[in-house]
Structure formats: C-alpha cells, structure tokens
Amino acid sequence: MFTLTGPHGGPLAGRRVRFSLSSFHTARPSLWFEVSEGRKSPGRYGYLDLDTDAGGTVVLDPWLRHGTVPTAAAGVRPVVRAQLVGSETILATSHLSVSEPRSTR
Fold first, then answer.
1. DSSP H or E run through 84
2. Between 60 and which of 64, 94, 96, 97 could a Cys-Cys bridge form, CB atoms 3.0 to 4.6 Å apart?
3. Dihedral pair phi/psi, residue 103, rounded to 5°
4. Nearest CA to 64 among 82, 84, 44?
5. Are the C-beta atoms of 13 and 53 separated by less than 8 Å?
6. Is 36 exposed, middle or buried (0-12, 13-18, 19+ CB in 10 A)?
7. What is the dihedral sign for C-alpha 8, 50, 1, 98?
C-alpha cells in the first residue's frame, strides 16, 4: 500500500502516481505489473499509473505479480519507484525480492 500526503500530512486524493520497476526486462521472470483491462489476455508491464483514492492511498496488490524465479537467480535487485505523473520527483522507493519457495516437508 502507498499513501500520498501533502506538506501538512493530509491525504492527497485523485493524484495520478506512476509505479515503475527498475531493471524490468531482467526482473520480468520474477516481478511485473499485470494489466488485463480492455485486453483479451493480461499484459506484463514494468510500470503502472494509478490514481490515489479519497484517503490518498493506492493498493498495488491487484496488479503486482511475482513468478517462480527468485530475483537473486535473475541477477537483479529490483526497486519499485513512485512518482507523480508529469513530475520527475521520486516520491518513494523500495527494494523488492522474490524468494525460493519454502519446502513443506
């Protein structure tokens, strides 16, 4: 979840935020944004533009997907970045990783 707030701490509703994955083409076996609206089959993308809700919040869970290839095996340490659309200012960054599935034995 991502929350956008103004200078006085209040939520900024209705703002378009671009979320992008660094090294997307290398990280694609591990992480991607999946969008199916208006398509016959879902597409895998390295970025996604979403609008904040009334509380200034965006939830990435419906779009962020992970594969079975651990990010370490793909040789990347991807970062998700958030920035206002039309601005060069980065609002937030966070490292992401996909781990090996745990054995249930």
1. strand 79-84
2. 64
3. -75, 140
4. 44
5. yes
6. exposed
7. negative
Question: Residues 38, 41, 44, CA angle at the centre, nearest 5°?
Answer: 95
Please state, as a whole number, how many other Cβ atoms lie within 10 Å of the Cβ of residue 69: 15
Tens of pLDDT, residues 19-70: 998 877 777 677 888 887 766 677 888 899 999 999 999 998 888 888 776 6
Tell me which residue has tokens 């034995």: 105
Task: List, for residues 60-80, the tens digit of each pLDDT value.
Answer: 888 888 877 666 766 777 888
Least Cα distance to 98 among 34, 19, 76 occurs for 76
Spatial contact of 47 and 16, defined as CB atoms under 8 Å apart: no
At 38, which amino acid appears? G
